[in-house]
Design goal:
CATH topology of the largest domain: Butyryl-CoA Dehydrogenase, subunit A, domain 3
CATH architecture of the largest domain: Up-down Bundle
Radius of gyration: 45 Å
Order of helices and strands: HEEEHHHEEHEEHEEEEHEH
Structural class: alpha+beta
Largest sheet: 5 strands, antiparallel
Number of domains: 2
Number of strands: 12
Helix content: 40-55%
Length: 339
């Protein structure tokens, strides 16, 4: 099964990896604060490795409501995040070089999982800073919390807080969605290929079974009172007479009398080229068959077969002679009656 990536996946993998390198130098998130006293607004800009924007002004405002001041060195995330993003970018380039679906799958699953974990961590950070307030702060509003929204807008006293991805964040988000879509695309391709292989395998197995069956097809026991003759359509009643005709495709036709068997062949119900073998019931051993060309035949009016063919088949001359003593008649071979 082909484990290589589709060309479109490889191209977008390259672009995604380059995009992740760019994320290292771009702001990932932005929290924008608006209020009447700040008509131009205040912005807290979050990079992979630092805090930027109006950090000092926001810290001054936070002092009045009891929120902790914000400092880059207080967050371990800014220490490890650049390395994690860089590792994902490198993983993308390695995926491109390996050109293997399993490698791409691992990269995508890890990337999406990290994105979810990062958002959970960001929410936890916002919650702690918005709820753990200084009890001695100059401005206190009972029951009030100052947690910014994870994404979207929220009113905090006279400030409106907007939280949204910045350039790097949008790139990161687009890469995650793109990788997930491409993974589904690749997996669907794999499933289709697998199904085609399964269908081909099943078809091959069925064909082989038909070939083996046709090559090894043997006569099946005649069921008295159940099976019907394929020529006269009468139910089989006498286990000492009858026979079977087998085609190269393994189809078996059943007959209750030699007369019916030869009549069926004479009517041209099948092509002679399709005939594989003819088997005759052993008169002396009912339930057993003899290959027609090896059988010794006795035709006697006293035998009284079901459809008046009055011909019995024997595996040996001795068995035929023993019956002939009571049912005198003409000794024949298969070629004499199958002309």
């Amino acid at each position: 099964m082909n484990n290589k990536l589709q060309p479109v996946t490889r191209i977008l993998t390259l672009l995604s990896s380059i995009g992740l390198v760019a994320v290292l130098f771009l702001p990932m998130w932005r929290i924008q604060l608006t209020a009447p006293q700040y008509p131009e607004g205040l912005a807290l800009v979050i990079y992979p490795h630092k805090l930027g924007g109006d950090v000092d002004v926001i810290n001054g405002l936070n002092h009045y409501i009891g929120m902790r001041t914000l400092h880059t060195q207080d967050f371990i995330e800014f220490t490890v995040l650049p390395y994690i993003i860089g590792a994902f970018a490198l993983f993308g380039f390695l995926t491109l070089l390996s050109n293997r679906k399993w490698f791409y799958t691992v990269w995508t699953v890890l990337f999406v999982a990290f994105g979810i974990i990062a958002m959970v961590d960001f929410y936890r950070w916002e919650y702690n800073y918005g709820h753990n307030l200084d009890s001695t702060a100059p401005i206190q509003v009972p029951g009030m919390a100052y947690q910014p929204p994870l994404i979207g807008f929220k009113q905090l006293l006279n400030f409106g807080a907007y939280s949204m991805p910045d350039a790097g964040g949008w790139i990161f988000l687009i890469v995650g969605v793109l990788l997930a879509i491409l993974l589904v695309f690749e997996l669907r391709k794999t499933v289709k290929i697998t199904r085609k292989l399964e269908i081909k395998t099943a078809a091959t197995a069925a064909l082989m079974a038909m070939i083996v069956s046709s090559c090894t097809a043997q006569p099946e026991p005649l069921k008295m009172g159940v099976d019907a003759c394929d020529f006269c359509k009468m139910t089989l009643t006498d286990p000492k007479f009858g026979g079977e005709l087998i085609t190269k495709k393994g189809r078996i036709s059943r007959f209750d009398d030699m007369h019916c068997l030869t009549g069926y062949m004479a009517m041209g119900n099948f092509s002679t080229a399709d005939l594989k073998s003819v088997w005759l019931v052993d008169y002396a051993n009912p339930g057993q068959f003899i290959a027609a060309e090896k059988a010794i035949l006795l035709k006697s009016e006293k035998l009284r077969s079901p459809m008046a063919g009055n011909i019995a088949a024997f595996s040996t001359n001795e068995k035929m002679e023993a019956v002939k003593a009571d049912y005198p008649g003409e000794v024949l071979a298969w070629k004499d009656i199958s002309k």
